[in-house]
Amino acid sequence: MEIKQIGYDKFSIIVFENVYNKDELDLVWQETNFLCHEHKLYPADIVGSALEEDGSPKKKNKGIWLDDAFKKGISNYLRLYKCIVDVMDSNRDTFVKNDINLKLFYHTNMDSTLLSYYEDKDYYKAHHDESCYTLVYYLFKEPKKFTGGDLTFTEIDQKVNINSNMAILFPSWIDHEVDKITMPDNVERYKSNGRFCFSTFFAMRY
Fold this sequence. Notes:
32% strand; five-stranded antiparallel beta sheet; globular; 13 strands; alpha+beta; 6 helices; single chain
């Protein structure tokens, strides 16, 4: 796993590249392929979304809350992502020295994970998450069968080009969006050819 902290004016993000090894990736793909079906994934109005002023969802995609679908000990992803938390713990002093706001991450004591799947014309408009910190992990087949889908922090107009097997930790309050996905017509739908994002929301329970 390769780790770097990128500092912006008011906050920093932690980027994790090559998060899982081949055997771990195989486990994540097994679970992801199992869930990638139009009858297992739910639309935005059911799974939840930030809302427009008129109450309509700001996103077009499908997803499922892993905490509802599996017990934590059964889900491959919910077991494996703890390695990222371990890396955060082992680098605590360095990360907080570079960005004191990260103290908030280390005070979180609960989390939940949403698997989102994006195919042609799917997107998520600028929004913020109702948690303390958000960890997003990206997974897609290579060579990539779509364009778009990158992450942009809209308040500072900063785009992050995503890679498969890459994760980003950022403060949930910063507005961010997902570029619209474009896929060729000849690519099969619901065959895991799109963009997967595992979003873990870290919060505090008092």
